[in-house]
Specification:
- By secondary structure, this protein is an alpha/beta fold.
- 39% of the residues lie in helices and 16% in strands.
- The strands form 3 sheets. It has an 8-stranded parallel β-sheet. A two-stranded antiparallel ribbon has the order 1-2.
- The relative contact order is 0.15.
């Protein structure tokens, strides 16, 4: 697989990563199987998808433990990215950016992952009760201590920004400007996909101007852009899509033209090319420092996603995608 260099630390990873969250958190708990997930991670590494993206809150904790089982055998093949800064309660998630907690969280992640160093340590969310510079300074100390190689920053969630009435990534850009004065930001992670392109407006240009890598979260639109979901099919209660404003039966039906367009372009590239691969190829085309991190928990999906690295979209393809109708959702 093509390799991409991201961030000031010149981190080299496969052009497509693996989001490990669905294996332990947020998507259809009845379908989560440890042995199947392990096979999926091995398949990703075999295909050159070296960036494994996890977080201590996924599970919580079980996702890192699962990856630790793979890293015991294949640490040299993997680029390990995990996150800190969020605590999971019984019915809620809260931020904790206190320096003492960040240090403890890092040590705990290292133990669960079974590794001496985390390649990329990301701040999942800034704590509104703690100056972000203090949190970032504690993370920088972990780099100096040799426990972490580079630091990344995750963008504020879309719904929070929309509720405030601000442009989607205004708050994140302000926070990035502040932490960049403390220690270099190597990567920014935010949602970017054919149906959620907002990061192209300000966040991706900010990264491009500073040589910062961009990890594209949810590049398959929570599975919608694969074309395998049916309007009205329903989701398990623990699945985030059961409460997502774009996954009501009405909105899934309204957004079918986006999937139809991806299918049309896929057919132009060959019978074996899928809508998901076209969607990932679009993300790859947004810049050499962009690495899509699609979530998957089955090896066949991992292999399909990895195949997107070989799909090169034409200017006509990109123009057609740019003309897709905007995705609709109840938050719009």
């Amino acid at each position: 697989m093509e390799r991409r260099t991201i961030g000031a630390a010149a981190l080299e990873v496969g052009a497509i990563g693996l989001g490990c969250m669905p294996m332990s958190w947020a998507y259809s708990g009845s379908e989560q199987r440890g042995s199947r997930s392990l096979r999926a991670v091995h398949a990703a590494l075999d295909a050159g998808c070296s960036l494994l993206d996890t977080a201590d809150m996924y599970g919580p904790f079980t996702n890192e433990l699962l990856l630790g089982r793979v890293l015991k055998e294949r640490r040299a093949d993997a680029f390990v990215s995990t996150k800190c800064g969020l605590l999971v309660g019984e019915q809620h998630v809260v931020a904790n950016g206190r320096p003492g907690y960040i240090r403890r969280a890092c040590d705990a992640s290292l133990r669960r992952l079974g590794t001496d160093v985390i390649d990329l340590y990301q701040l999942h969310r800034a704590d509104p009760e703690v100056p972000v510079e203090e949190t970032w300074g504690a993370m920088a100390e972990l780099v100096a201590a040799g426990k972490v190689r580079a630091l990344g920053f995750c963008a504020v969630g879309a719904r929070a920004a929309r509720r405030s009435g601000a442009r989607l990534h205004d708050q994140t850009v302000r926070q990035l400007e502040r932490v960049q004065q403390v220690f270099p930001v190597s990567t920014v992670q935010a949602e970017l996909s054919v149906w959620s392109p907002e990061a192209l407006d300000a966040l991706l240009p900010w990264c491009e101007a500073r040589g910062v890598g961009f990890l594209a979260a949810m590049p398959l639109g929570n599975g919608f852009l694969t074309g395998t979901l049916t309007p009205g099919q329903g989701f398990e209660p623990d699945d985030v899509r059961a409460r997502h404003p774009r996954f009501t039966a009405e909105m899934m039906a309204a957004n079918q033209p986006v999937v139809a367009g991806l299918r049309r372009i896929a057919r132009l590239h060959g019978e074996e090319i899928t809508p998901a691969q076209v969607a990932l190829a679009w993300v790859l085309a947004q810049g050499r420092q962009v690495v899509p991190v699609p979530g998957a928990k089955r090896e066949e999906w991992v292999r399909e996603n990895a195949g997107a690295a070989g799909v090169v979209l034409t200017e006509a393809d990109l123009a057609e995608i740019a003309g897709f109708p905007p995705a609709q959702g109840s938050w719009d």
